[in-house]
Write a structure and sequence with these properties.
The structure holds two protein chains of two kinds.
Chain A lengths: L9 H7 L4 E6 L8 H10 L5 E4 L11 H10 L4 E6 L5 H13 L4 E5 L20 H14 L15 E6 L9 H11 L3 E6 L3 H13 L7 E6 L5 H10 L7 H8 L6 H16 L5 E6 L8 H7 L9
Parallel strand pairs in A: 1-2, 1-8, 2-3, 3-4, 4-5, 5-6, 6-7, 7-8
Chain B lengths: L1 E5 L2 H8 L4 E7 L2 H4 L5 H18 L4 E7 L12 H6 L2 E4 L3 H10 L4 E3 L1 E11 L2 E6 L15 H4 L16 E2 L2 E5 L1 H11 L35
Parallel strand pairs in B: 2-3, 2-4, 4-5
Antiparallel strand pairs in B: 1-6, 6-7, 8-9
Classes of the chains: A alpha/beta, B alpha/beta.
């Protein structure tokens, strides 16, 4: 069943047409080399509908998301501008939204951002003038009503498809669906979830989402990150906040010879997509192959998601 | 109350060592509760500094005194002569007391404490932040738990994705404020309120609006 499109976003058009959407993400470089983005984009651009550019992820200072998104745009690749509320106040956030819109960047993902204590500038201040839900409201206000938060008119409002993250695995679990409802009420038109490893828990969450009809109010893209090794699985399980990695994943990788673990990690990811395609309410996949972008085409092809639809 | 923590002795010594007569001056209300800057602690600090002076071979007269509160004029009367005799004062009040003294006396006033936060005594020896004095209280909507003071990202529509087993992503020793809020809303039978979006905050009543002042015209003498 197709839904109405509100923006020129290609990602929105694909989701609205009822196709599974496929996105991936790239982290900008820790320097000013533009080739770092172009090279990563070249690896995956024919296998995804849009590429998220992270915004100083894990609070490690990098090239800004906006500049990297503009670079993608000039290469003919559709970007998803990630924007965290940690580093900028409402003036800077709205200003960057307009800057992005001036380049016809049509997708934005609104996040609060990891705490700065995880990064390389732990002594810095955090801003959080707005939170992620309020950033969603802000983009929708600018787009739909053509207004700044301060009340003045925006000339040529930003035509952005507005997304948010959701973590079905964070605590307290019993409000995770309410929290999604809240993000939708704040304006989230698509959701990219935290990396899924605990399939049963994700399916339980999706069932509650579908029971409340929330999957008809937003597009839920299941987040996946292939494991490179058992070491990565252990790290994700024990050290990354809000991550739920079941013991059987760690065991499966641990039982695989070291030189075959990466291949096994990719295999697990493909199996997950195959299973998730059958889960009611899943509208697409967000494949976050961290510093492993070259694996994305293989995963997309093996999961039967290639070629990407023309819209 | 205002919680403070005594600065390292070395840092204090570097500030006072070139003076001849130093008064260590306690403040016996807020910071005394956390046993850091009260009159008793000022006395102990003065004696430690005297020992330090002997070790360093520096000739410096270090005495101590204190009053109930360094943030109100009336309490200073009984200590005027002691303060007048000193070349410099090491105030063990919070930053308010230190500044209030600096406004009153034309001599160096040094801070003996780092002012840490507005908090409560969770148990003897444990003090924890509860308020950031943002100027617009929302505790009525959040079940009596403040996400501005107690969430590391001051998220008004939380919890963020980093909440695990009731703890904050920054440390397993820090409670997730939004877990506490959700638990409290549940206890109060107000879980339906959770889905109400907290509006974008007006931070102009916070430090963002510049130094704050409250004037009670009705209390000011004509």
């Amino acid at each position: 069943m197709s839904r109405e499109c509100k923006t020129p976003s290609r990602l929105e058009k694909i989701l609205a047409a009822g196709h599974f959407g496929v996105t991936s993400e790239c982290g900008p470089p820790r320097g000013s080399d533009p080739e770092a983005i172009s090279e990563k984009a070249a690896l995956i651009k024919d296998h995804v509908d849009a590429i998220n550019i992270t915004d100083n992820q894990t609070s490690v200072c990098r090239m800004c998301s906006l500049a990297a998104c503009i670079r993608l745009k000039t290469l003919g690749v559709e970007p998803v501008l990630q924007m965290v509320t940690r580093d900028r106040n409402r003036i800077a956030l709205q200003s960057d939204i307009l800057g992005a819109a001036s380049w016809d960047i049509n997708n934005i993902l609104c996040l609060s951002g990891d705490h700065q204590s995880f990064g390389d500038h732990a002594n810095g201040q955090n801003v959080h003038d707005l939170d992620s839900m309020q950033l969603l409201q802000t983009v929708r206000l600018m787009r739909d009503e053509g207004k700044f938060l301060g009340g003045d008119d925006v000339k040529r409002p930003p035509a952005m498809f507005v997304g948010a993250a959701a973590n079905p695995f964070a605590d307290p679990y019993d409000i995770r669906v309410s929290r999604l409802a809240k993000k939708i009420a704040a304006g989230a038109e698509f959701i990219q979830t935290q990396c899924i490893y605990n399939m049963e828990k994700f399916e339980d969450w999706m069932k509650q989402v579908v029971d409340r009809g929330l999957h008809e109010k937003t597009y839920i893209m299941a987040g996946l990150t292939p494991m490179k090794s058992v070491g990565m699985a252990r790290y994700m399980k024990n050290r990354v906040p809000g991550m739920d990695v079941p013991d059987e994943i760690v065991k499966r990788l641990g039982d695989t010879p070291k030189e075959k673990q990466a291949e096994e990690g990719v295999k697990i990811c493909i199996e997950q997509i195959q299973r998730l395609k059958e889960v009611k309410g899943v509208a697409g996949f967000h494949i976050m192959a961290i510093e492993w972008e070259e694996k994305v085409p293989e995963i997309v092809e093996a999961a039967g998601l290639h070629p990407r639809p023309e819209v | 109350m205002i919680v403070g923590e005594q600065k390292p002795l070395e840092e204090i010594w570097e500030m006072i060592k070139d003076h001849k007569k130093v008064l260590v001056f306690g403040c016996n209300t807020c910071v005394a509760v956390c046993q850091q800057g009260g009159n008793k602690e000022a006395e102990i600090l003065a004696s430690m500094l005297r020992m330090k002076a002997v070790q360093e071979g520096v000739d410096i007269e270090i005495t101590d005194a204190g009053i109930e509160r360094q943030c109100e004029h009336e309490f200073f009367e009984k200590a005027e002569s002691r303060i007048g005799d000193a070349d410099a004062v090491l105030s063990t009040a919070c930053g308010i007391g230190v500044q209030f003294m600096a406004e009153k006396y034309p001599k160096p006033i040094y801070p003996g404490l780092n002012t840490t936060f507005l908090g409560a005594v969770e148990e003897f020896g444990v003090y924890a932040e509860r308020c950031q004095a943002c100027g617009t209280c929302i505790l009525g909507q959040t079940g009596g738990i403040c996400p501005i003071a107690r969430c590391a990202k001051r998220v008004l529509n939380g919890p963020c994705g980093g909440s695990t087993n009731g703890k904050c992503e920054i440390s397993k020793d820090v409670d997730c404020a939004w877990q506490l809020i959700v638990d409290r809303l549940r206890l109060l039978g107000r879980m339906d309120d959770y889905e109400a979006l907290t509006p974008i905050k007006d931070w102009s009543t916070d430090r963002a609006g510049g130094p704050r002042k409250l004037v009670r015209e009705d209390l000011i003498d004509e």
